């Protein structure tokens, strides 16, 4: 489980990333990221109510947390991240989400801000 110090928790933290950040996306996910000051990555997950009922949203959140937690060492420490799943016709499998996270994290790591 991800430690509290590495999580975006407050509304103002999410708003700061949305306002000052850049975004990359693919078919299943959007990642919004911005630079931080303390050299510790902070990660948040935001899932719209349009995504589905609470059971579906919580399942997606749990999957994303597990995937990101496994790849925590690959995240660039100078950024804060928000992961947003996209609403698609066919639901993404765990493997598809893993590929999506890998692709987006790699793209963020190649970014020079």
Walk me through what this model shows:
By secondary structure, the chain is α+β, with helices and mostly antiparallel strands. The chain has a single domain, classed as Ribosomal Protein S5, domain 2 (2-Layer Sandwich), CATH 3.30.230. The chain is built from three helices and four strands; from the N terminus they run αβββαβα. A four-stranded mixed beta sheet has the order 1-2-4-3, with helices on both faces. Helix 2 (54-70) packs across helix 3 (94-109). The longest helix is centred in the middle third of the chain and has 17 residues, at 54-70. It is globular and about 40 Å long. The model has no long low-confidence stretch (mean pLDDT 92).
């Amino acid at each position: 489980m991800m430690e509290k110090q590495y999580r975006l928790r407050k509304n103002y933290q999410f708003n700061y990333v949305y306002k000052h950040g850049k975004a990359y996306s693919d078919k299943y996910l959007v990642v919004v990221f911005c630079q931080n000051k303390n050299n510790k990555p902070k990660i948040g997950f935001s899932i719209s109510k349009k995504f589905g009922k609470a059971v579906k949203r919580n399942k997606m959140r749990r999957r994303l947390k597990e995937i990101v937690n496994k790849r925590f060492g690959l995240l660039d420490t100078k950024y804060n991240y928000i992961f947003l799943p996209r609403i698609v016709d066919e639901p993404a499998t765990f493997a598809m989400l893993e590929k999506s996270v890998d692709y987006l994290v790699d793209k963020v790591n190649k970014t020079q801000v």
